[in-house]
Amino acid sequence: MKELFEDTISFEKLDDIPRSKMQKDRSFKKIMEAAEPGRLGKKQVRQFPWVKGPLLTAAAFFVAAVYFYSQFSIPDQDSTFAELKELPIADVITAETDSEYSYITNGVNIELNESSYAENPFMKAMIRSMLHESAPTNYTPAEKPSYDALIRFKGGDTLQLKLWNVNEVIYFREESSKEFFKAPEKLSRSIFKTLKKEGFSWKKAG
């Protein structure tokens, strides 16, 4: 029973690894399906008659823990960006930044230097268009980033972006990624215009 308890604790600790809610739900569903007792063939059970009760439960936890660990250790083919951009946006929070190595310090309460667009459907629609219409690019801005953007989706998931203003065109990447995307020029100008209208001016890179 001690081993079973330790396996359970180790399994639960894996959930502390940062990951989007969507990815955790998907992994949990697969784990439950893999560990379902009914999926263990009768022939296998007869070959090991001594495997029953706590031993079988401990084995199920071990298999689930290994699978769960592999889900976190091996990157998904689908990035967080690819998954989350399909969800409806609940809020967009922006804050000025001049560093690639820091991010919005507060993701819950709005600080004085942060701007929320939860009540601005036009801005949320433009950001959604930016996520869908932007294309991957090999260009890496040499300048410092201009803004952090925290996008909250309905359901609780979030997307953390670093944004650059390069000649009035938005370049961005996920806060934890090195892959850059380039937004359409016309859409970039519209986003800049909206931000300035709200009283905030984007800093040009350089």
TrEMBL record:
Q: What is this protein called?
A: DUF4367 domain-containing protein
Q: Which organism is it from?
A: Bacillus infantis NRRL B-14911
Q: Which residue ranges traverse the bilayer? A: 49-69
UniProtKB keywords: Membrane, Transmembrane, Transmembrane helix
Lineage, broadest ranks: Bacteria, Bacillati, Bacillota, Bacilli, Bacillales
